[in-house]
Amino acid sequence: MAGTAAGRTDADRGHGDAGHVLRTATADDLGGARAVMLDTVYRDLRSGYVPRWHADIIDPGTAYLRPERCTLLVVEHRGEIVATGAVRDRGPQAPPNPPWVAERFPSGTTAQLCRIYVRPEHRRHGLARQLVRELGQFAVRAGGYEALYLHTDPAVPGAEPFWRSLAQEVCDERTLPGGGQGIVHFELPMPGAVAASGGAARVTPAG
């Protein structure tokens, strides 16, 4: 399973805040992870649930746990999954994305960060930043990845400023003729040194 073949999260050595534990997902976590993802899609995304875009949410085990170079991380709080984050081993496809974006981030050498969702009542604890950090380190341990890519819907509250604080804009589709899909494409720097470890992690609060 992903996360075990390529090593557990570096946060597994971490220390704690108010009971949030970040760890690699298991099959037992898939129902809780799916609930977080679906709730976010229906609540925050303008598109709502679109089967061709969100098939991984229905079957996250096949999408993230089985492939060696993919992973799904979860944050647990008092027995409930309250946040998710994943790496998939393919880049953006064209269409619907601009062809030059797809060419810049080819599948196989691109680690795409996705499904970084935090339930509203658990935001402002640094969980998303912690997830991004651990997903980037997983990509380095997995090997073969040359770029970290993601896209976001700026209509999601707080999403655009969050990603601008961490990543470099590659393409803002709102500036394209017709507005494109209205999403923003980003590239994150690949992490440097990575330490592998085992166990569970407690999340350090961040801003």
Automatic annotation (TrEMBL):
InterPro entries: Acyl_CoA_acyltransferase, GNAT_dom, NAT_camello-type
Record's keyword annotation contains Transferase: yes
Domain N-acetyltransferase: 20-191
Annotated protein name in UniProt: GNAT family N-acetyltransferase
Domain of life: Bacteria
CDD domains membership: NAT_SF
Source organism per UniProt: Streptomyces anulatus (Streptomyces chrysomallus)
Keywords: Transferase
